[in-house]
UniProtKB/TrEMBL annotation:
Protein name: Uncharacterized protein
Region (Disordered): 20-52
Keywords, ordered alphabetically: Signal
Domain of life where this protein originates: Bacteria
Signal peptide: 1-22
Biased composition (Low complexity): 26-41
Native source species: Methylorubrum extorquens
């Protein structure tokens, strides 16, 4: 029964849209961490303010530069240094988005292949989407694994990540290599559980760092996503990442 319930919950989670991750949950699942000032800094190259992390990741029309009829492929990898841990052996697979026209010039209808073979998970489809759903697909899948490992309320973890994007993220300009040329992009980095009141229960995962790289000139704009946690001795608790496969563009 529990296995069936989790399968249904996971299936439902993987249709979540990017805007659901950007939204605030007004009903706290647990005591909230102390607020921190948003450390977004000035871009010395443009003398302008770096964009807000949540807006950059979840509120932009990221699919507008993706041609209908194309397929975006993202290479996925996960490995964990937890001996006999719940993540099992290293996993390498892919998420594929098949893109068709939406109702507006900036939106797309998107079919999803979330992994392959025995790893395949139900996900999507997404209708009339301006944002790239691969971001929420990665985060929802990551959230389920982390909540199961920590025996934690998934909503508490999700709220911490949301809050981290609003209040703890650093956003810095960077250059991205794309199909033999260099394009401008942004790097978003945060540690949402640093200073969290529940950190003593997180088994070392209070150190987890999330890194997102986006570039407006790359189809779908999402270049890479990484979630990484280290042991005190520098060993790896978890590395989970997604990378845009440039061969499909």
């Amino acid at each position: 029964m529990r296995r069936s319930f989790l399968a249904v919950a996971l299936s439902a989670a993987l249709v979540t849209t990017p805007s659901a991750w950007a939204a605030s949950d007004t009903t706290p699942a647990a005591p909230q961490e102390t607020a921190a000032q948003n450390p977004a800094t000035k871009d010395p190259a443009t003398k302008g303010t770096a964009p807000d992390a949540s807006d950059l990741l979840f509120e932009q029309p990221q699919m507008k530069n993706t041609a209908p009829g194309s397929t975006l492929t993202y290479d996925y990898a996960r490995r964990s240094g937890i001996e006999r841990g719940p993540y099992g052996p290293p996993l390498s697979d892919a998420i594929k988005l098949t893109v068709e026209p939406g109702k507006s010039a900036e939106s797309r209808d998107i079919r999803v292949q979330m992994f392959s073979g025995g790893n395949r998970l139900p996900a999507g489809p997404f209708t009339d989407m301006p944002g790239n759903p691969v971001l929420s697909l990665f985060l929802e899948n990551h959230l389920k694994g982390l909540a199961s490992l920590l025996e934690a309320n998934p909503r508490y973890i999700k709220n911490a990540i949301r809050k981290g994007l609003r209040e703890k993220a650093t956003v810095t300009p960077m250059q991205v290599s794309f199909k033999g040329r260099t394009v401008e992009g942004w790097r978003v980095e945060m540690k949402p559980f640093a200073g969290d009141p529940q950190s003593e229960r997180m088994r070392g995962f209070e150190t987890i760092t999330y890194t997102f790289v986006v570039a407006p000139d790359v189809p779908g704009e999402i270049v890479s996503i990484q979630a990484r946690a280290l042991k005190p001795d520098g060993g790896e608790l978890l590395e989970e990442r997604l990378d845009y496969d440039q061969k499909d563009s």
